């Protein structure tokens, strides 16, 4: 501490001299052959430092790959951070200390080498530096805090009638006076007045809010008391509008807020490090930066609640965003975004496809998704070549699941800005593993067609939202909002999918009786032949001429619950199959997006037919191959008998030597050996054929699909294995399991195989514990069976599902190599998936994903054709 | 009890090897009945229905039918169906002896009225055992 105190006293006096020293040091370090080293540390857990760090790493890897980073994240306490800072001072050229507590520590103790702060609230407020523009001393960096003027301007866009505000702050918080001063200055500059209330408790805040006049707009400050209780304050505010200085506030119901992008802040921080260590700029000249283009966050539900006060442009933006979010969530295809091949956004489909969770993917190089560098490189070059030619790129490639298994995918990418790839590239990804294995080429044309469509809609929507939420200046927001309307209109008109917006119609008792069409796009008129004027504003029953409006129950459920719904249907008058997804952008309203999937259905029918044919081949072949085997086995037995007969004959009439003993040797030793070889191999061959027969039979079984109480099913399976379980001293823990849809007999076999494996491959060194659990995930259910067995080595993982594959065929208890293959086949027959995670020596967890809703065995092809007419909407 | 009537075993089997193994297996089991073999379902049906120009059924003799399923020209299931549909033949015991162990096939044969369904096991010991049992069964029937 003595050293830091000296520095703090000397700094103001020796500023100029020190500056020179620093400059020299920076130049020296840049010139020295030793690569500069930078230490990064923070204390405590938070995802924000991770995002800052990924931006930092990205900037460094692009501009100064020679700089070495040493990262010490999530230190347990401030003492640990203190000693880490001490170590960095002695061994590094610069350091990056993240989070507000770290910044405060730096401010208190001073620092001997250049230090950057990040993931902090306003460093002035924290007492780290005297001003943002000339931080002075040895500290600079980035902050997520934003000038109040920027925030108020954004609020004005959302609520142009704002005339006075009530700012809620936490009493006694060091940041509160700064928030207050900043807001007062900004408000007077913008020509409206306001007041501030410092609250000591939530009750204070609620009281202040409920006493506010109806014209006062509430603004929530960025202090913990206010942010954490935003929901309660919003509730107390009643009809008054509430804005928030933090994202949490918006999530909890405030109308809007404006927030910084952490990843971008990280990149800015990286560039500051490069400026210091590579370009030799003195730290004192690097001002503390904040996000110049923060994101406007809008809470669509709140916008809807106050719709009469909010300009139409903002409302439509909120709706578009909400619709987009609903589509992203429910889309049957992977959607994501990369910036310079670093993943910045993924949807749930991609998480399921790759087995990673969101944190494991965001901020990472997309390379991690590929099985090899070569494949990653190929996709990069080929896709960007196509993009530069056509504006979009589509590549068929392979991804590697977290468990090591390979997935065949089609990737399609389109940049947000064709001339600037760094602005981000949206991509869609379709898992074609199943069809790839069955019949690679057959449906490819259809898939590409489908894929293009999906890519197109997603891209346009993403572009729209991104464009609109990027807020630079006040008038740019307005321009962007106008542009959003135009874009939305263009998108709507140009889509090949039929898009129809509706609202529910209720009778006096509040019962849903019909729904009204509020908007249709051109595709709707093109496909159905119903003109826009004949549809918009009219009731569905009238438009389609049916007594009962089509799918009223299903649509009402979506519009009331907000849960998206998807189905496929056959529309007889047009002889077409449609995939319809229904999403709800707000209560009592819903949108249908309808895709013509006839081509795809035809392809799937062909694949199904081919599959069936293959299974028949398999059946006939394995069956016919058994016939000769019966002969080989039978006649080799006869040969044995005949040999015995010869022996008996020879015993009566021995041959003269030496032929006699030769013959004896052949009969006694060689013949039995030969026969033994024949017979063991016949047995092997028979086992293989039996396996193939079993598999072809699993594929050919016709399913009876109904709701299956998986909890009861597993209980009976566990009971059936009671003897083996007791014998091996195993314990089974079975959680509450959600039901699913499927064929009970087949599912019984599936889970029996998994449980059987858990018992069979237990580790004799420790007692076997099996844990069965299940989780609902929207329209799907994932069951897991976790064991404490031997585990599977990573190199075997991708192949354990293959037919006849055995991890160690030499083991006496190795199975027939069918169990898991059958598990996989059954899951796939149920339109489900299976995967495994395992650690050798610890155990394995097998996952089974099945559908939570009714489905038909052969997709929509056998579904009864629609009884109602006109549901092609 | 009626007077002794000879029981002739009809083996309908397209695979020469199988036919011989079956014959041998039955003989090993101590059966010494007369055995007639047909190489496909059509030949067997010609004999049974008297429609061919080959050998004909003898009225003084009882018959037992051992039927394979997968055969050229007419398969075993078809023969079984015809036998059971023919009032003159439907009392004849029919034993399916085949490599197929598909439960649906088995069920179908029982539904059509076969008496026993035996799967030809590849393991000859098992096969021989089932033939032996079959032989014993036939001896009982014969008596």
How does this structure look, described?
The complex is a heterodimer of chains A (873) and B (143). By secondary structure, chain A is α/β, with parallel strands linked by helices. Chain A has six domains: 2-145 and 264-290, Rossmann fold (3-Layer(aba) Sandwich), CATH 3.40.50; 148-259, Rossmann fold, CATH 3.40.50; 314-479, PAS domain (Beta-Lactamase, 2-Layer Sandwich); 495-598, Beta-Lactamase, CATH 3.30.450.20; 601-699; 705-856, 2-Layer Sandwich (Heat Shock Protein 90), CATH 3.30.565.10. Chain A is built from 29 helices and 29 strands. Chain A has a six-stranded parallel beta sheet with strand order 2-1-3-4-5-11, with helices on both faces. A six-stranded mixed beta sheet of chain A has the order 7-6-8-9-10-12, with helices on both faces. A five-stranded antiparallel beta sheet of chain A has the order 14-13-17-16-15. The longest helix of chain A is centred in the C-terminal third of the chain and has 55 residues, at 598-652. Mean pLDDT of chain A is 78; it is low at 1-32, 437-456, 463-477 and 859-873. Chain B has one domain (7-142): Rossmann fold. In chain B, 43% of the residues lie in helices and 17% in strands. Chain B is built from five helices and five strands, in the order βαβαβαβαβα. Chain B has a five-stranded parallel beta sheet, sandwiched between helices. In chain B, α4 links the parallel β4 (94-98) and β5. Chain B is globular, with a radius of gyration of 14 Å. In chain B, α1 packs across α5. With 143 residues, chain B is of the alpha/beta class. Chains A and B meet through α24 and α25 of A and α1 and α5 of B.
Give the strand order, joined by hyphens, for the main sheet of chain A: 2-1-3-4-5-11
Query: CATH homologous superfamily of chain B, by name?
Result: Response regulator
Oligomer: heterodimer
State mean pLDDT of chain A (0 to 100 scale): 78
Q: What's the pLDDT, averaged over the residues of chain B?
A: 80
In CATH, what is the homologous superfamily of the largest domain in chain A?
Answer: Response regulator
Structural category of chain B is: alpha/beta
Provide the gyration radius of chain A in Å.
34 Å
Helix/strand structural class of chain A: alpha/beta
Annotated CATH topology of the largest domain in chain A: Rossmann fold
Second rung of CATH, namely the architecture of the largest domain in chain A: 3-Layer(aba) Sandwich
Number of domains of chain A: 6
Gross morphology of chain A is globular
Whole-number total of structural domains of chain B: 1
Count helical runs of chain A: 29
Largest interface by residue count? A-B, 19 and 18 residues
Percent range of helical residues of chain B: 40-55%
Name of the CATH architecture of chain B: 3-Layer(aba) Sandwich
The N- to C-terminal Cα distance of chain A equals: 73 Å
> Beta fraction of the residues of chain A?
15-25%
Write down the CATH topology of chain B.
Answer: Rossmann fold
């Amino acid at each position: 501490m003595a050293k830091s105190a000296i520095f703090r006293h000397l700094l103001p006096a020796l500023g100029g001299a020190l500056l020179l020293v620093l400059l020299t040091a920076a130049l020296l370090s840049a010139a020295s052959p030793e690569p500069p080293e930078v230490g990064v540390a923070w204390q405590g857990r938070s995802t924000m430092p991770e995002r800052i760090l990924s931006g930092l790493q990205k900037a460094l890897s692009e501009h100064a790959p020679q700089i070495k980073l040493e990262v010490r994240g999530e230190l347990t306490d401030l003492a640990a951070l203190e000693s880490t800072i001490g170590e960095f001072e002695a061994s590094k050229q610069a350091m990056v200390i993240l989070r507000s507590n770290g910044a405060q520590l730096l401010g208190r103790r001073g620092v001997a080498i250049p230090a950057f702060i990040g993931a902090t609230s306003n460093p002035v407020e924290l007492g780290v530096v005297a001003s943002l523009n000339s931080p002075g001393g040895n500290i600079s960096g980035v902050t997520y805090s934003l000038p109040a003027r920027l925030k108020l301007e954004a609020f004005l866009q959302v609520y142009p009638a704002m005339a006075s505000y009530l700012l809620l702050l936490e009493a006694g918080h060091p940041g509160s006076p700064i928030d207050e001063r900043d807001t007062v200055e900004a408000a007077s500059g913008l020509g409206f007045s306001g007041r501030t209330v410092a609250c000591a408790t939530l009750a204070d805040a609620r009281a202040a809010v409920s006493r506010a006049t109806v014209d006062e707009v509430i603004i929530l400050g960025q202090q913990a008391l206010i942010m954490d209780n935003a929901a309660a304050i919003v509730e107390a505010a009643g009809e008054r509008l509430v804005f928030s200085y933090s994202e949490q506030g918006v999530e909890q119901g405030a109308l809007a807020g404006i927030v910084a992008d952490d990843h971008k802040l990280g990149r800015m921080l990286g560039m500051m490090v490069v400026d210091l260590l590579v370009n030799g700029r003195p730290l004192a000249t690097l001002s503390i930066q904040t996000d110049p283009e923060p994101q406007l966050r809008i809470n669509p539900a709140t916008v809807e609640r106050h719709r009469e006060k909010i300009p139409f442009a903002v409302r439509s933006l909120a709706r578009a965003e909400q619709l987009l979010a609903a589509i992203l969530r429910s889309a049957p295809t992977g959607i994501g975004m990369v910036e310079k091949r670093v993943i910045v956004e993924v949807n749930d489909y991609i998480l399921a496809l790759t087995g990673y969770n969101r944190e494991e993917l965001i901020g990472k190089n997309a390379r991690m998704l590929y099985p090899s560098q070569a494949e990653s490189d190929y996709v990069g070059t080929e896709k960007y070549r196509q993009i530069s030619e056509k504006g979009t790129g589509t590549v068929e490639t392979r991804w590697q699941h977290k468990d090591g298994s390979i997935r065949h995918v089609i990737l399609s990418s389109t940049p947000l800005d064709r001339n600037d790839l760094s602005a981000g590239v949206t991509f869609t990804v379709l898992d074609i593993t199943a069809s790839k294995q069955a019949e690679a080429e057959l449906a490819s044309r259809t898939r590409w067609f489908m894929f293009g469509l999906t890519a197109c809609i997603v891209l346009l929507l993403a572009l729209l939202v991104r464009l609109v939420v990027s807020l630079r200046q006040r008038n740019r927001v307005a321009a962007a909002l106008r542009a959003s309307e135009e874009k939305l209109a263009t998108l709507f008109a140009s889509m090949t999918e039929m898009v129809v917006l509706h609202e529910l119609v209720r009778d006096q008792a509040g019962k849903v009786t019909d729904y009204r069409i509020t908007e249709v796009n051109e595709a709707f008129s093109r496909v159905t032949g119903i003109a826009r004027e004949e549809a918009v504003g009219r009731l569905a029953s009238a438009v389609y001429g049916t007594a009962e409006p089509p799918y009223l129950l299903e649509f009402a459920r979506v519009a009331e619950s907000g849960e998206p719904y998807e189905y496929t249907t056959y529309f007889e008058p047009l002889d077409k199959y449609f995939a319809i997804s229904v999403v709800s952008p707000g209560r009592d309203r819903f949108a249908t997006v309808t895709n013509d999937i006839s081509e795809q259905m035809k392809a799937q029918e062909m694949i199904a037919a081919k599959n069936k044919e293959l299974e028949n081949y398999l059946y006939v072949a394995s069956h016919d191959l058994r016939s000769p085997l019966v002969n080989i086995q039978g006649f080799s037995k006869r040969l044995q008998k005949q040999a015995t007969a010869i022996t008996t004959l020879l015993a009566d009439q021995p041959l003269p030597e030496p032929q006699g003993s030769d013959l004896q040797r052949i009969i006694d030793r060689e013949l039995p050996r030969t026969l033994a070889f024949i017979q063991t191999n016949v047995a092997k061959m028979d086992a293989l054929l039996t396996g193939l027969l079993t598999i072809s039979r699993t594929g050919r079984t016709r399913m009876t699909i109904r709701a299956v109480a998986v909890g009861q099913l597993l209980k009976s399976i566990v009971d059936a294995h009671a003897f083996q379980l007791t014998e091996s001293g195993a314990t089974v823990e079975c959680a509450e399991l959600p039901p699913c849809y499927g064929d009970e007999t087949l599912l019984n076999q599936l889970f029996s195989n998994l449980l059987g494996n858990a018992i069979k491959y237990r580790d004799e060194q420790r007692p076997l514990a099996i844990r069965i659990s299940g989780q609902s995930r929207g329209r799907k259910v994932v069951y897991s069976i976790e064991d404490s067995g031997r585990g599977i080595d990573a190199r075997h993982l991708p192949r354990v599902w293959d037919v006849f594959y055995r991890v160690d065929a030499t083991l006496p208890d190795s199975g027939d190599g069918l169990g898991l293959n059958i598990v996989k086949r059954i899951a796939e027959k149920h339109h489900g998936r299976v995967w495994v995670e395992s650690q050798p020596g610890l155990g394995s967890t097998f996952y089974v994903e099945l559908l939570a809703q009714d489905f038909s065995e052969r997709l929509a092809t056998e579904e009864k054709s629609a009884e109602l007419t006109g549901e092609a909407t | 009890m009626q007077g002794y009537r000879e029981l002739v075993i009809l083996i309908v089997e397209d695979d020469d090897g199988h036919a011989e193994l079956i014959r041998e297996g039955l003989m090993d089991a101590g059966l010494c009945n007369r055995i007639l073999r047909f190489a496909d379902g059509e030949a067997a049906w010609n004999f049974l229905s008297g429609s061919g120009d080959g050998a004909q059924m003898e009225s003084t003799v009882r018959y037992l039918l051992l039927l394979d399923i997968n055969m050229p020209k007419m398969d075993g299931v078809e023969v079984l169906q015809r036998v059971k549909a023919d009032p003159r033949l439907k009392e004849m015991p029919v034993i399916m002896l085949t490599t197929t162990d598909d439960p649906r096939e088995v069920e179908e044969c029982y539904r059509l009225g076969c008496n026993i369904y035996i799967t030809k096991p590849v393991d000859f010991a098992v096969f021989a055992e089932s033939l032996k049992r079959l032989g014993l069964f036939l001896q009982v029937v014969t008596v």
